[in-house]
């Protein structure tokens, strides 16, 4: 439907690929192999009582090269997840009407936010619990030895300031860590901090509030990867474990 809408606007290079993404065929390309450019994607979530769906369509931007980094978590390179990677209004509305025999669209304004059911939905969809907890199970691992070496799955080195023999592996479900093995060597002894992460929601962890006995570097790295707010590392951390 969206591709047909784009065609009516003169974007005849638009097509749907095998992943159901909307892509643009490069100018001058024939019917053979070619590298396409993704301009639209969609995602959905099905629950018992409702279905949520959203789609995006990027037509033009002077900052296309910069957009990618904002759509990917810095932790993504160390994560294996069960989920599927994601990612002209008038023309789409018109095409939607043709497909579903609609003639007069219903336009909803800001005033609908006062409707209790809609207000409740907005509050839920913008809550930290929805944003961070409604996620598929994933595994985080600092071990890059099993990574593919191709361009799609490159090996990413760990920060150089991490302690010797640093290792971090944990599994998270519904935004909470259910098992963890995080350790490093300090003064010849292995320090295990994974037990301090289990049963905690990742977005609620204040990495700068761990005991002083735990090295700063791993905590600052985790903060950079997972914190949704800026943490103040000037505060004195608690002294006892």
Automatic annotation (TrEMBL):
Name any Gene Ontology BP term.
protein lipoylation
InterPro entries named among the record's database cross-references: aa-tRNA-synth_II/BPL/LPL, BPL_LPL_catalytic, LipoylTrfase_LipoateP_Ligase
Q: Which PROSITE patterns match?
A: BPL_LPL_CATALYTIC
One Pfam short name: LplA-B_cat
**Which residue range or ranges hold the BPL/LPL catalytic domain?**
1-104
Domain of life of the native organism? Eukaryota
Pathway it acts in?
A: Protein modification; protein lipoylation via exogenous pathway; protein N(6)-(lipoyl)lysine from lipoate: step 2/2
Instruction: List, alphabetically, the Gene3D superfamilies matched.
Output: Bira Bifunctional Protein, Domain 2 (3.30.930.10)
Query: What is the documented function of this protein?
Result: Catalyzes both the ATP-dependent activation of exogenously supplied lipoate to lipoyl-AMP and the transfer of the activated lipoyl onto the lipoyl domains of lipoate-dependent enzymes.
Entry similarity comment: Belongs to the LplA family.
Protein name, entry field:
Putative lipoate-protein ligase A
Which species expresses this protein natively? Answer: Sclerotinia sclerotiorum (strain ATCC 18683 / 1980 / Ss-1)
- Taxonomy-wise, where does this protein's organism fall, top ranks first? Eukaryota, Fungi, Dikarya, Ascomycota, Pezizomycotina
């Amino acid at each position: 439907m969206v591709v047909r809408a784009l065609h009516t606007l003169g974007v005849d290079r638009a097509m749907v690929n095998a992943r159901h993404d909307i892509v643009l065929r490069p100018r001058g390309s024939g019917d053979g192999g070619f590298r396409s450019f993704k301009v639209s994607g969609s995602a959905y979530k099905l629950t018992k009582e409702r279905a949520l769906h959203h789609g995006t369509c990027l037509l033009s931007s002077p900052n296309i090269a910069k957009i990618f980094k904002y759509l990917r978590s810095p932790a993504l390179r160390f994560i294996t997840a069960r989920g599927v990677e994601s990612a002209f209004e008038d023309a789409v509305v018109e095409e939607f009407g043709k497909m579903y025999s609609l003639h007069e669209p219903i336009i909803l304004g800001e005033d609908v936010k006062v409707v209790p059911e809609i207000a409740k939905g907005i509050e839920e969809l913008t809550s930290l619990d929805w944003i961070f907890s409604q996620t598929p199970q994933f595994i985080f691992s600092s071990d890059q030895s099993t990574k593919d070496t191709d361009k799609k799955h490159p090996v990413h080195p760990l920060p150089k300031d991490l302690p010797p023999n640093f290792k971090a592996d944990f599994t998270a479900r519904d935004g909470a860590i259910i098992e963890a093995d995080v350790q490093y060597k300090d003064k010849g002894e292995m320090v295990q901090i994974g037990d301090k992460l289990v049963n905690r929601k990742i977005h609620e962890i204040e990495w700068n509030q761990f005991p002083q006995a735990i090295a700063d570097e791993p905590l600052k790295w985790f903060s950079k990867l997972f914190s949704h707010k800026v943490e103040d590392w000037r505060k004195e951390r608690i002294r006892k474990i």
